[in-house]
């Protein structure tokens, strides 16, 4: 009976170790590296310019995927591509850990448009999470600048930005639908 207890304890300990996630990313290193990002994306990833997205509280997997896409050139942006090209895998992971750990931003949005957008938001929430907080590889929309979201929807619709189902979804939206959705998500 005494032999069972240590083996049971060892088994439980090993099971716990195998199921406990490993967090290799270093948020402090990410914070240092993020100084380069703050010029556009703002301190702690809270952009004051609607041309640049908020990175605060963004999904880390999404950030990693986007930085890798900029680095490889599969996502085009004349500013981001050279910046991402200089990042190591560790830098990318650290930046994602840092920005995802920041308090979410709230950009606001036209209240009238936001109210109309709320009734249309269900088309987005299946992938982007029930509160638009993001869902793994799908980005956080809540608190994002409405003008930024509107531009991204237009880019998907025009095909200048690719992203699986987003092109088809954006193609089904009118200009007014896009403005209303952008205002709603910005207001969250």
UniProtKB/TrEMBL annotation:
It holds the Pfam family Cytochrom_C. It comes from the Bacteria. Heme c 1 binds at residues 37, 40-41, 80. GO terms for cellular component: periplasmic space. This is Cytochrome c class I. Residues 25-103, 104-188 form the Cytochrome c domain. PROSITE patterns: CYTC. The lineage of its organism: Bacteria, Pseudomonadati, Pseudomonadota, Gammaproteobacteria, Methylococcales. Binds 2 heme c groups covalently per subunit. Transmembrane segments: none annotated. InterPro entries: Cyt_c-like_dom, Cyt_c-like_dom_sf, Cytochrome_c4-like, Cytochrome_c_Oxidase_Subunit. GO terms for molecular function: electron transfer activity; heme binding; iron ion binding. Heme c 2 binds at residues 124, 127-128, 166.
């Amino acid at each position: 009976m005494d032999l069972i207890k240590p083996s049971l304890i060892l088994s439980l300990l090993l099971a716990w170790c195998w199921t406990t996630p490993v967090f290799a990313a270093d948020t402090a290193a990410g914070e240092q590296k993020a100084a380069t990002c703050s010029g556009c994306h703002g301190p702690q990833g809270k952009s004051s310019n609607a041309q640049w997205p908020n990175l605060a509280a963004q999904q880390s997997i999404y950030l990693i995927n986007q930085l890798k896409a900029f680095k490889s050139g599969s996502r085009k942006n004349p500013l981001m591509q050279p910046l991402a090209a200089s990042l190591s895998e560790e830098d990318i992971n650290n930046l994602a850990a840092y920005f995802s750990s920041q308090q979410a931003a709230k950009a606001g949005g036209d209240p009238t448009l936001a109210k109309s957008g709320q009734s249309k938001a269900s088309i987005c929430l299946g992938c982007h999470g029930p509160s638009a907080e993001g869902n793994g590889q799908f980005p956080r929309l809540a608190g994002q600048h409405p003008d930024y979201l509107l531009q991204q929807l237009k880019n998907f619709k025009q095909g200048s930005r690719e992203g699986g189902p987003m092109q088809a979804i954006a193609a089904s939206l009118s200009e007014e639908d896009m403005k209303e959705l952008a205002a709603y998500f910005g207001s969250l």
